[in-house]
Amino acid sequence: MALMGWSDLIYLGIGLGLGLGSNYIRRGRQKSAPPPEAEPRHQPTPQEVDLKQFDALSEQLKQTQLAYQMASEMSQFKAGFLARTSHELRSPLSSTIGTLQLILSDLCDDPAEEREFVEQAHAGALRLVKLIDEIVFVAKTEHGTDKMDIEPIQLAKLFDEVDDLTYLQAANRSIRLEISPPDPEIYVLADWPRFRQVLVNLVDTAIAQMEEGSIRVSAQIAPESGYVHIWVDDQRSVSAWSESWDLLKQDLDVDTKSSDAKVSSGMRLLMDQTLLSLMNGKLEVLAVPAESEDANFNRTQCSIPLATF
After folding, report:
1. pTM to 2 decimals?
2. Fold of 61-305
3. H or E element: which one contains 218?
């Protein structure tokens, strides 16, 4: 092999240098090439940000208004219940005190009359204790001292008990009482003794305020709301039932000298309303006019949650 000359070596070196340089440049470009561009993120516009904030504030405002309305209604209800309770207790107590004052003032004609007044005062005190027990029963339930046993109960069976507890009072006053049995498959969520007490109170109150006429108790499911509506329709005076709050306020002008310490219809309605609210129910008083004004009847609507299986 012939040895390369100086010129050949020079050309060989230039060629090698050019080759190495091109490879180096190509590798450097590959290393420094930027990654493929990612899709740009959507940045919310100022209008979209303002709209979201507005929706959030609107929702908070609605919740605040709802909470305020519930607190206001509950405050009014508590005030009404307290006023009614104080009146219910004051009337029979005043009667008992008046009877005892007659005895202490020596206004009795003889010992027999004095003994009669003492017996009246004693009977009034016993009735007052019974009245207090009814009010305390509701108050304890509302406070949570007496727990409710909310469970599915068969409405038809409950109606049978209400019929047994009220038909005699209606018959004694010659009032037609019709309790239509609901579907045996209907169950509601309630506390059995307290819900029974509410329905009996509603029927008894109607009987006590009527001289004649009829009372009908029926039930209807409202699937869209998940409630069962129980209707007590009667033929009391429309003026006494024009508004539910009027009914709650009535009987405040009863004779305070009377010794008959019975819970008035307004107080009983308040207690029924309290018990129903604790069972997630609702009580409404509605006036339902008929074709003839003389044939008007009134409806008390008791709504209670429907039990589903």
Report:
1. 0.59
2. Heat Shock Protein 90 (3.30.565)
3. strand 214-222
